[in-house]
């Protein structure tokens, strides 16, 4: 029974994290849309985003 409770707690935590991630994505989408509607240079702001997934290596000779 204890293992089942741990499973339920972990499952609830994953659901909360997914909901938070969806909320963040929605906020980013709406901010980008507002920037496009206002005619501001949204591309310039997006160029400075954090790219954790892409690690650039130096060019080899």
From TrEMBL:
<feature type="region of interest" description="Disordered">
    <location>
        <begin position="31"/>
        <end position="61"/>
    </location>
</feature>
<protein>
    <submittedName>
        <fullName>Uncharacterized protein</fullName>
    </submittedName>
</protein>
<feature type="compositionally biased region" description="Basic residues">
    <location>
        <begin position="51"/>
        <end position="61"/>
    </location>
</feature>
<feature type="compositionally biased region" description="Basic and acidic residues">
    <location>
        <begin position="31"/>
        <end position="50"/>
    </location>
</feature>
């Amino acid at each position: 029974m204890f293992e089942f409770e741990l499973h339920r707690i972990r499952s609830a935590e994953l659901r909360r994290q997914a909901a938070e991630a969806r909320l963040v994505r929605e906020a980013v989408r709406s901010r980008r849309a507002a920037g496009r509607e206002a005619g501001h240079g949204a591309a310039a702001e997006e160029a400075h985003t954090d790219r954790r997934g892409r690690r650039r290596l130096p060019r080899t000779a």
